[in-house]
Amino acid sequence: MSRKRIPFGVMLQGPGGHMNAWKHPSVPADASVNFEHYVRAARQAEKAGIAFVFIADGLYINEVSIPHFLNRFEPIALLSALAASTASIGLVGTLSTSYSDPFTVARQFGSIDVISGGRAGWNAVTSPLEGSARNYNRDKHPEHALRYEIAGEHIEVVKGLWDSWDDDAFPRDRETGRYADFTKMHRLDFKGRFHAAEGPLNLGRSPQGQPVLFQAGASDDGIKLAGRHADAVFAGSESFEQNRELSRKLKQSAQAHGRQPDHLKIFPGVAPVVGSTEEEAERKYQEIRALVTDHEALLYLGRFFDHHDFTAYPLDDPFPDLGDIGANNFRAHTDRIKRVAREKKLTLREVALNEATPRSRFIGTPEAVADELGRWVEGGAADGFVLGFHVLNAGLDDFEAQVLPILEARGQHRPAQFGTTLRDHLGLPYRDSRYAVPSAGTGEEAA
Amino acid sequence: MSRKRIPFGVMLQGPGGHMNAWKHPSVPADASVNFEHYVRAARQAEKAGIAFVFIADGLYINEVSIPHFLNRFEPIALLSALAASTASIGLVGTLSTSYSDPFTVARQFGSIDVISGGRAGWNAVTSPLEGSARNYNRDKHPEHALRYEIAGEHIEVVKGLWDSWDDDAFPRDRETGRYADFTKMHRLDFKGRFHAAEGPLNLGRSPQGQPVLFQAGASDDGIKLAGRHADAVFAGSESFEQNRELSRKLKQSAQAHGRQPDHLKIFPGVAPVVGSTEEEAERKYQEIRALVTDHEALLYLGRFFDHHDFTAYPLDDPFPDLGDIGANNFRAHTDRIKRVAREKKLTLREVALNEATPRSRFIGTPEAVADELGRWVEGGAADGFVLGFHVLNAGLDDFEAQVLPILEARGQHRPAQFGTTLRDHLGLPYRDSRYAVPSAGTGEEAA
Ligand SMILES: Cc1cc2nc3c(=O)[nH]c(=O)nc-3n(C[C@H](O)[C@H](O)[C@H](O)COP(=O)(O)O)c2cc1C
Ligand SMILES: Cc1cc2nc3c(=O)[nH]c(=O)nc-3n(C[C@H](O)[C@H](O)[C@H](O)COP(=O)(O)O)c2cc1C
C-alpha cells in the first residue's frame, strides 16, 4: 500500500473533551491538575506514533464553567514540563493574542522550542469569552473583527521577533572572544495600531526556525489570518463537507498570501468512539452521554452563547430564537447550532444533549473509523486529525489498540515519529528567516 | 554541634554570573540556551542539598549587553522544564511586575507549584532597564517610585488570585456529581489604579498554599514592598554591615505590616572562589579576571554611566573626573565607583577590571569561606545565601567538594533537602489562605 501517512494530534485537556469526563472511571478525577496524568498520556501517545499533544486554554471561569476548567494548568508551564518529560512528540499549546504581550509569547514558545529540540507549536486564539477582559483589567472584550486585527499584529510581532537573529548569529568563538555577530542581528522596530516592539528578542532562532503556528478560528477573518500566518488550522467541525470546503478556502487563502497551499495543513478535531461491534461502540457512546444531566447540558450550551441562561426555556419546546446572542463568541459554532436546530426542528433538550456529547461521525468499529479517517484525507477534507476523545484514557487506549494497527496495516500510520521536529511530523519545511538569502525553493515568503 | 543549618540557593544564569563566563572551559559556550546544562547543574545542586535554583531575567538587550544575556531562556518555560527534571530542589524565577499581567503570572507560578509538588518561587522585580518599555509597547519605562506602586498592586492581585479557592474547594465526588464547592470559591473583584482582576483564578491552591515570593530591590520602596509581601529578599551587596542593616530594616518592615519578622528571610548574593590554599584561590580569581579584556571591561563600565565611552581615556592614568555623568541611572553605584577610585587612587584600567570581575569577600580557602558564611548567619546579616558563582560549573564543583563538607561537619549543612516544599527548605510555614479560619498560630496575617 502506498497510501499517505496521517499525522494525528491528541487533545490533552485533563480528563477529556467531555464536560463531565472527570466522572469516568478510566481517568483520575483531578486529571486537569494532575501532572502525572499528563505525562502518562503524552508518553503513551508518543510511543503510539502520534505526532503532537494539543493543550487548549481559557481565561475566564464562573459557576457554570465545565468542571475541569475550574482548575487547570496554564499551557506554557504545562507544555514546558511535558517537553522535559517526553522525547519526540510535538507540543502545541493555546495562548491568546488578546491577552498577552508578543515579546513574552515569542520568548516562551521560542524557549520551549529550544528546550524540546524543535517540538513546539503555538495555537494562537483570540479568546472567545467576554469575561476574560475583567480578569485582565480591560474595559471590554474586543469584538470579533477587532480581535482578529489585534491578532494579526500580535502574530506579526512574534514572528518578527523570532527572526531577530540569523541562524548563524552566535559564533561563540573563545579564540576571538566573539560571542555574537551583530551584523546578523535584526531589530524589528515594529510600530502598529495595537502592538509595538523594538527588539531584538533575547533569544536566537530555534530548531524549527520558528515554532509551528496553529490557528483555530474558522470565520472569514480566521481564514484570512490563517492564510497569512498559520502552518496549521485546528478545525472545529466534524462534517466532511464543511472541512473540505474549509480546507479549500484555507489553501486558497495561503496561496493568495504568496505561500504554498500545501504549507497550511488542516486538522479537524474528531472524537472517535470505537467498539469491536457497532453495538459496543454505541453502548460506549451512550455511557459517555449518561455522564451529563439535562441541567448540566443546558449550562454547557450556554457557554457558547456568553453564558446565556437556557434553563429559562421549556426543555421540550423547539430551540428558542436567540437573535444575535452568541455572535461575538464562538460565532461559526453558534451560527451552526442555530441553523441545524431550525433545519432539523430540534427541541432545546435535544440541542443541549447533542452539544454536551456530540454524536461523532467516528463512532463505530475500528474498521469503520479507520475507513472514515482515510476517506477524509483522500477526499481533501483533512491533512491530519486532532483526536479530542470524550474521555482521554479510555479513548486513547481504544484508538491505540484497535484503530492505529489497521491504519498501520494500510500504510497510513507507523508507531514511530515522522522525523525529529514537529515540522517534520506535520510535513512542513524548516522555517527560513525572512532575512535568509533564498536557497533552492525550500522555504516560502516570510509573512 | 547545634549550629543553625544554612539554606543555599544557586543562581543559574547560563555559564555563570561573570560577563564572560561563556569563555571558561568548564562550561558549554552556549550554556544560556543549553537545557542539558541547566538540568545537570540543577540536579547536582539538588543532590548536594542546595535548597533552590534561582533564575534571573531581563527584558531588553542591545549590542553592549552581557554576551550570554543576548540569547537566554524565558524563566517560566525554563523553571517548568526543570520542575519535571528534578525531584526536591526549589525553583525560583524572576518575572517583572512592570511588564506582565497578574492573572497570567498567578496561573504560571501556581501551575509550576502544582507540577513540582510545592517547589515554586517567584522573584518579583520591577525591571531596571529603560529599553524594556520599547519591547512592550509603552511610551516610557515607569520611574522608580511608580514602578514600586505598580508592583504593590500587581503582587496584591496575584496573591489574591492564589486564594481564589479554599484548600478543600474541590470534592470531585463522582457519587453526587459535585466537582467543586462554590461556597469555597472567592471572586477577588480587585480594582486598583494599575491593575484589576475579577477572578476567580482557574487554578486552585497549590502545595505550598502559595508559591514563595522573593523580592530583589533594596531601596526604601523595595524594603516596604518586601515587608508587606515577600517571604524572602535576594540582596545585592556583599558587605556584612550593609546586609546586617538591610536585614534589620526588612524584619522591622515585616513587623510593621503585622507579620512575624522571622517569616521574611534575607539571602545575600555571594560569589565564592575557593582554593585549597589562599594562593590557589587567588589564582582562580585571576583566571576568571582574565576572561575579560581591557576593552571589554571599559564597555562594561560604560553600561553604568549611560554608555559613556571610556576607551577615549588613557588606560593607566588616574580614573577620569566625570562630573555628573552617571548620576542619572545607577547613581548609588556610580557614586561609589567615583569615590573609591579617588580614595584608592585607582587607574581607569583598575576600576574597569574591578567592575567587570568584582573581588568577592568570599575568595579563599574552604575553611575561610565557610567561616565567613557562618559569621554572616550568626551575626544577623543573612538567613541563607544565593550562590552567584562567576563561572557556574567550576564554582559549584569546588563549593560542593570543599565548602559544603566543612559546613556539614559543623552542623550547618546536610546533603539532603530540609523537607518537601520550598517553604520547608527555607523554614517558612505553609501559607494559609486569607479566608482560612485562623488555626493555632500557624500562618500569619494575609497581606
Ligand atoms: C477547534 C477549536 C479549538 C479552539 N480552541 C480554543 C482554545 O483552546 N482556547 C480559546 O480561547 N479559544 C479556542 N477556540 C476559539 C477560537 O480561537 C476563536 O476565538 C473562536 O472560534 C472565534 O473565532 P472564529 O469565529 O474565527 O471561529 C477554538 C476554536 C476551535 C474551532
Ligand atoms: C540581587 C539582585 C538581583 C536582581 N535580579 C534582577 C533580575 O533578575 N531581573 C531584573 O529585571 N531585575 C533584577 N534586579 C533589579 C531589582 O529588582 C530592582 O529593579 C532594582 O534593584 C531597583 O530597585 P531598588 O532601587 O529597590 O534596588 C535585581 C536586583 C538585585 C539587588
TrEMBL record, chains A, B:
The protein's enzyme class: oxidoreductase
Gene3D superfamilies: Luciferase-like domain (3.20.20.30)
Enzyme Commission numbers on file: 1.-.-.-
GO molecular function: oxidoreductase activity
Record's keyword annotation contains Oxidoreductase: yes
Record-linked Pfam families: Bac_luciferase (PF00296)
Entry protein name: LLM class flavin-dependent oxidoreductase
InterPro entries referenced in this protein's UniProt entry, alphabetically: Diverse_substr_monoxygenases, Luciferase-like_dom, Luciferase-like_sf, NTA_MOA
Organism the protein comes from: Labrys neptuniae
Superkingdom of origin: Bacteria
Keywords of this entry: Flavoprotein, FMN, Monooxygenase, Oxidoreductase
Origin organism lineage: Bacteria, Pseudomonadati, Pseudomonadota, Alphaproteobacteria, Hyphomicrobiales
Family stated for the protein in its record: Belongs to the NtaA/SnaA/DszA monooxygenase family.
Residue stretches making up the Luciferase-like domain: 29-381
